[in-house]
Amino acid sequence: MNKDVRISDAEIEVMKIAWEKNPITSNEIVEKLLQTTSWAPKTIRTLINRLANKGALNYKHQGKGYLYTPGVSKEECVKAETESFLNRMFDGALMPMLTYFAESRKLSSEDIENLKNIIEGNH
Questions:
Q1: First CA to last CA across the chain, in angstroms?
Q2: Which of 3, 13, 30, 70 is the most exposed place for a label (fewest CB within 10 A)?
Q3: Residue 73's CB: how many other CB atoms inside 10 A?
Q4: Coarse DSSP helix, strand, coil percentages of the chain, rounded to the nearest 5 percent
Q5: Which pTM value belongs to this model?
Q6: In what order do the strands lie in the sheet with 57-62?
Q7: Rounded to 5 degrees, what are φ and ψ at 73?
């Protein structure tokens, strides 16, 4: 993902829908978000336009509207958000972050075993 592209929390909600069903129309995005948010349709359309202007959503003209597809993958966004979080909160150091999560969350035996396998390269 382009490092200049910043996707807000609200925009991520739009992207989740685009990743789930693509291509998708703006009307379909609006309908889905009206079911789960208290946002006005105009707000949702503004978010769609912002994402299109950023290149996070691609679009092509279809009939009276547009058909949207993701311009960035979910994996690209997760990677960018994770790196941003790691840099902002832990100065880019992975170990303090892992320690924090391991100490602040109750890890199950299965979680611990999975982490060991990842560390040992057996995933």
A1: 25
A2: 3
A3: 12
A4: 60, 10, 25
A5: 0.79
A6: 24-25, 65-70, 57-62
A7: -85, 160
